[in-house]
Amino acid sequence: MKKIYIYTAAMAVVLYTTGCNKLKDFGDVNSNPGATTTAITSALLTNVQSNLGGYASTNTEPLSGAQYGQYFSETQYSGTSLYNLPQNSFTGNYSGNLNNLQTIINLNVSNNSTAVAKIMQQYIYWIITDSWGDVPYTQALKGSAVIQPVYDTQETIYKGIISTLTSAISEFDSSSSLAGDIIYGGDVASWKRMANSLKLLAAIQLSNRVTGASDYAAVAVKEAIASGVITTNAQNFTLVYPGGTYKSAWYSLYNGRKDYGESKTLTDITVGSNDPRQAEFGGASELSGNVTTSNIGVPYGLVRLSVLAFEDANPTWARVLRGDLRLETGSVVMINAAEVWLARAEAANLGWTDESITTDYTTGVAASFEQWDAGTPSASYLAQFPVTDTKNADITGSQIKNISIQRWIASYPDGHAAWAIWRKTGWPALTPAPDATNSSGQIVRRFTYASSEYNTNGTNVNAAVARLTGGDTQDAHVWWDTRTTN
Asked: Keyword Lipoprotein on this protein (predicted)?
């Protein structure tokens, strides 16, 4: 008999206990997790939040996305950036973080912790569906009741993300507790802003599919803005690591290794436009704390021997982030004010809102400069990426091009964002890896399903594959990716 599908694995009491004890140094966690359900839920919340930064840094999804979206180049063992065909599995997300959050929801100790758990689930689902396309959603996390969940269409998942965020925001109440929150310290207003920002970012991702100003995506954007989104860097959705056992993901990227560098694709744009953010984007050393900057981007998509020859000739090639931004006690930003403002500029450009395109755009660029301690964007800098208040929804036009390029820059180093922005808009213009190993020679558009999916849930995964043009390949497009060119 086939083993029970991993999404549905029930949470054992020992997992509760392990999850609580392992996090004793990461936030204020009750030392006796078995005593009450409050202790269980607060520890589980802390546990998942301590993992959440990985979804915007070094987990498989964003780390691969950073290479497909050409933030990063491989510097040791070229593979992902050459479009080798791994079968990445999403099941660990379900059996781990998503299931822990579902436990919080099922226990329902407080309205606020339940609402936050729902919001965090949607953030994870957003990254999963953007990476694979159709995945289990409505029937996931149902325990033994559903051991082989259907693969929902990406449109169904996006609608679910938007509606769940809307309902979760309404579930917060002033009399409810929010224990174990190491991101916003239990501040409900911050979580509402984050949820609205995620709702906005998810909705704007659908603009090539759900185009009308009165359609559900545009309505979601307007609702999010009206309810209140992230507008300043102080409100950013950020995980700060305490160090020690819980080191920053960016510190760990170079802890004894140097497998990635800032891509020449990015440095060509930043150096070419005299962008002061480059001083923070790239460091000349993998050593944590080193303050020497580098603007020598690593050529993208080369085989190992070619990359090593480049490094030998350019020993101060740009590492990902300057060394003082890769401390053990550093942070990972998952949603920032700049990308929210720039998404608002895109929505205004589409005619979805009555906001000023130029105001949203310049505010977004300025927020990014501030985030990176790069001063204020000069008029000459902005003149290189001009926008006007004339609405132009043409995705091939200069208006959306400049908004998209600035959002791509502002989202660095979050690889999920880089890959998603490029797939939707085609900006910035990316050249496929010169030494690509895949048959098409084109940039990867999605992850393929792992063989374990076919072995354990074959009927449902095959139904999802049948909806893909060209089948389960890296060249197939997820639903919202309507561009026909690479």
From this structure: yes
| Strand intervals (E) in 356-431 | none
What is the distance between the terminal CA atoms of the chain, rounded to a whole angstrom? 43
**CA 461 to CA 7: how far, in whole Å?**
14
Q: Length of the chain, please?
A: 486
Q: How far apart are CA 472 and CA 132, in angstroms?
A: 10
Count of helices and strands (H, E) across the chain: 20, 8
Per DSSP, helices labelled H in 94-244 are 99-107, 111-132, 154-171, 188-204, 216-227
Nearest in space to 299 (alpha carbons), one of 125, 72, 23: 72
Interatomic CA distance for residues 309 and 250, integer angstroms: 25
Q: How far apart are CA 6 and CA 159, in angstroms?
A: 25
Tokens of 453: 């999916």
Region 6-244+330-466: CATH code: 1.25.40.390
Could you read off the pLDDT of 171-213 as tens digits, one per residue?
Answer: 999 888 899 999 999 999 999 999 999 999 999 999 999 999 9
Q: Is the pTM of this model over 0.70?
A: yes
Q: How confident is the model at residue 27 (pLDDT cuts 50, 70, 90)?
A: very low
User: Which residues face 246 on adjacent strands?
Assistant: 243
